[in-house]
Structures are given as C-alpha cells and as structure tokens.
Amino acid sequence: MFSAPLVIKETGHNRWSVVEPFRFTSESGLVIDVPVGFETDLASVPQVFQGLIGKVGYWSQAAVVHDWLYHRHRLGLDNTVTRKQADKILLEGSIIKAEMYGVQGGDNRHAVMYQGVRLGGLMTWETPQERSDRISTGDDEFLDG
Questions:
Q1: Which of 23, 42, 57, 106 could form a disulfide with 3 if both were Cys (CB 3.0 to 4.6 A apart)?
Q2: Is residue 138 one of the residues assigned to a domain?
C-alpha cells in the first residue's frame, strides 16, 4: 500500500526527483519510506522492450520504491532487504497500482518487468565489494535466490 501519490519533478535527461515523501508498506509488513530529493530514472527498460513497457506507467511509483531499495543497498546503507525482496516489492506495488487504476486483467507488463529485474538487475544491485567477491569466486550467476 502506498501512503501518498507519486509527486516528482524532472531534473535532467531521464532523471526525476521525488518532491513529496511517500511510504510503501508491503503485504509482509515491510515499510519503505522514499524521501524528498531522491533521484530516480523511473523504470529502467532495455531498448528492445520499450515498445511494450515505457518509463512511465501504472508501475512508476513501484519503480521509484525499487530504485530506492537498490540505491540504498548499492551504497551499503541497507542490508536488511534482499534483492529478491526488492524485486518482489516492484511486482507487488505495480499490481496494487494496476488495480487502483482499473488496468485490464490481461495487462501483464508488471510480470514482464519483474522477470526483467530478476534476470538483469544484479549488476545494479551489487555493491563494489559484492561484485568483486562474486567475480573472484568465479560465480557468474545473475540470480540471488
């Protein structure tokens, strides 16, 4: 559940800043507060999928929460949320917004986005030390369980 709508302002090419803070509370009870000033690129969609999924959509607020979680982990500020949990929060938040906006049941772009971050999000999630450790052990797995 989101505590407030997403209010952002454009700050540069593909960059937006959160203007009003908001909170997301997951079904599991995890509370995520996204602060004013946090910068996001909204949905990071590979070019090949941009015809299907845009940077902006019913998933935008969930994408900002997801960016916040990845940002905090990558900087070493939060190790309480796993990558898998962060990705599931993107999915959960997107579904909540789809229902709120009355998006038709056949619209499964949130599921495509979830699969995309599961397959391609590791490089963005990892701290420099985690990446170094993974490479030094020869681990080329891109999922973390």
A1: 23
A2: no
Range of the domain at 91: 8-127
The pTM assigned to this predicted structure is 0.91
Q: Between the CA of residue 50 and those of 54, 76, 99, 107, 113, what are the distances in Å?
A: 5, 31, 22, 15, 11
Taken in order 109, 119, 1, 63, is the CA torsion positive or negative? negative
Could you tell me if residue 139 is inside a domain? no
SS3 20: coil
For residue 93, give the amino acid letter. G
The answer to whether the CB of 96 falls within 8 A of the CB of 63 is no
The total number of structural domains in the chain stands at: 1
- Amino acid identity at 58: Y
Reported as a single tens digit per residue, the pLDDT across 1-21 is 999 999 999 999 999 999 999
User: Tell me: the pLDDT tens digits for 113-144?
Assistant: 999 899 888 888 988 888 888 888 877 665 55
Q: How, if at all, do strands 15-18 and 22-25 pair?
A: unpaired
